[in-house]
From TrEMBL:
The keyword Cell membrane does not apply. This is Rieske 2Fe-2S domain-containing protein. PROSITE patterns: RIESKE. PANTHER family: N-ACYL-PHOSPHATIDYLETHANOLAMINE-HYDROLYZING PHOSPHOLIPASE D. Keywords: 2Fe-2S, Iron, Iron-sulfur, Metal-binding. The keyword Transcription does not apply. It comes from Paractinoplanes ovalisporus. Residues 465-518 form the Rieske domain.
Length: 518
């Protein structure tokens, strides 16, 4: 089996029974904020795109690059489609010209021609990617690989059941706006960022340890930020709170915990994988490449500046009545929302500036009033969350009829945020569900899960707690760690105060816990 690195989370898997291209991403994503690093735009995409199968793990724009798919990927390719609750991924791929689809069943092995086997595990909670994230397992001639991608399954049991895995590709770096965009003192940001960075690595070690594959490939990030206002997010300034460590940092950290089987793929690197060996060749020396990271980034910044400028030129639509358009789009959804509206529990304010981000003068302030089920001008009130961003970005979201603001505005990091109290997952869940189909799905999901009674218990130290994490059901007998009266679920790092059951990380999500009698 041959694995060719094609950048970020993308790879091409070649076997004698056919080839699979995964998540090809080349064009900038999220308001031209994220670029693949190392740069993959100079690869021979005509050849790479001439494949038998295409796998797009989910709709996040650093995995689903419409322009690139349209231009370079063979429309003869059969799409290996994850089993998602909405048809959006399939619809968007059909719009791009793909016609052949294998609709997989989650967690079921599918046998393709020539003895190639695939299985896609689909994660479908409202917090999994854009309502759906997935991993691809492939087997050919006794060689198995798991492209876990940036999916966060509670465990890897299903893959382990299918036999020893030879290569495990997974995310290790950050892919979120926290804590950088929060209006916090720098020292606090660094402390939160450091915690997050450590947690990301801990989670990665846990997955690696779960699967015990022969070889581990760090993939799916980090992106690079080439616009001047976002340049500070690149991990080149020795900031221990930076959440975007790169593959070379992964290798160093992995070595500290005893990892010796890491394989870094640059775009164009090729690994020949057999049951007993791996041979990898690179287009350039990997260590040297990362040692010169800053110079590579600076060169990219210069080369991509016209791309960013052209994108920016398309965002402003001053003729749009932002308040009126948001009222029209959001108010009917507020009316239908029960769980998410209740979960947000207060007004959310958008301060809109005259720039392309949080800097500049505020020209309009709008409130999405969840309890009042209204979108209206800000009325000098206390709000639960406040976002500050460019009016032009909201104009553009309205102009392109965007129904997922996480997969556009929030991931762009072109905003700042402040909040009262804890992180509130419902705020972000709601703003990724600005369509009838998604809203109904998410509300139904919360309905089912809120009502689900978690009957099983597990004992952790002096405490008997419900076995499944109130966040996304991780098995706490494996992911739970108790320190004094606080339980941390290591899958996403959420914390719970055991005597009260209160979730310390987010609103709601109470845990059932009792001190074990000795
Ligand atoms: S499942 Fe997310 S913190 Fe436990």
């Amino acid at each position: 089996m041959r694995i060719t690195g094609t950048g970020h989370a993308s790879m091409r898997i070649d076997t004698a029974a056919g080839s699979i291209l995964c998540d090809p991403w080349v064009n900038p994503a999220y308001f031209a904020s994220w670029f693949p690093f190392p740069d993959n735009s100079l690869l021979d995409w005509e050849t790479l795109g001439d494949v038998d199968y295409l796998y797009v793990s989910h709709l996040h724009r650093d995995h689903f690059d419409a322009e690139h798919l349209k231009r370079f990927i063979s429309k003869k390719a059969t799409v290996l489609l994850p089993e998602y609750p909405t048809s959006q991924l399939e619809d968007e791929l059909r719009d791009l010209g793909f016609t052949s689809f294998l609709k997989t069943k989650s967690d079921e092995v599918h046998e393709l021609d020539g003895g190639l086997k695939v299985m896609i595990q689909a994660l479908i909670s409202p917090t999994d990617g854009p309502i759906g994230d997935s991993s691809l397992w492939v087997e050919y001639d006794g060689i198995r690989v798991l492209n876990q991608n940036d999916a966060r399954p509670t465990d890897l049991t299903r893959f382990n059941e299918l036999g020893h895995v030879h290569a495990h590709m997974l995310q290790f770096s950050g892919a979120i706006w926290y804590p950088m965009v929060y209006e916090l003192p720098e020292a606090a940001k660094t402390a939160f960022g450091k915690q997050k960075r450590d947690r990301q690595f801990d989670r990665t070690w846990r997955y690696i340890d779960d699967l015990k594959a022969d070889h581990v490939f760090p993939i799916a990030g980090p992106p690079c930020f080439l616009d001047d206002t976002l340049w500070k997010f690149n991990d080149i300034f020795g900031d221990e709170g930076n959440i975007f460590p790169d593959q070379s940092v992964f290798m160093a950290e992995y070595a500290k915990v005893g990892g010796t089987n890491g394989v870094v793929l640059l775009p164009g690197s090729v690994s020949e994988l057999s049951a007993s060996s791996i041979e990898t060749s690179h287009p350039t020396d990997v260590d040297e490449f990362f040692a010169n990271k800053q110079a590579h980034l600076e060169e990219m910044r210069e080369r991509k500046a016209p791309v960013i400028a052209a994108e920016k030129a398309s965002w402003r639509h001053p003729e749009i009545d932002v308040l009126g358009a948001l009222k029209k789009r959001i108010e009917p959804l507020l009316e239908e929302s029960i769980y998410m509206a209740q979960g947000v529990g207060g007004p959310v304010r958008f301060d809109l500036t005259d720039s392309f981000g949080p800097d500049g003068e505020v020209v309009e302030s709008i409130v999405v009033d969840f309890p009042g089920k209204q979108v209206r001008p800000y009325a000098d009130e206390k709000v639960r969350y406040r976002f500050k961003t460019g009016r032009a970005l909201i104009e553009h979201l309205i102009h392109i009829d965007e129904g997922d603001w996480v997969n556009s505005l929030f991931l762009s990091c072109r905003f700042s945020a402040a909040r009262i109290g804890q992180y509130n997952e419902y705020v972000y869940a709601f703003f990724k569900c600005l369509s009838e189909e998604r809203l109904q799905y998410a509300e139904g999901w919360y309905d089912e899960h809120e009502k689900a009674v978690e009957a099983e218990d597990t004992v952790l130290g002096d405490w008997t707690v419900q076995r499944r994490c109130p966040h996304l059901k991780a098995d706490l007998s494996r992911f739970g760690m108790v320190d004094g009266n606080v339980l941390t679920c290591q899958l996403h790092g959420w914390k719970f105060d055991l005597p009260s059951g209160r979730c310390l990380t987010s609103v709601g999500h109470k845990i059932r816990a009792e001190k074990t009698e000795n």
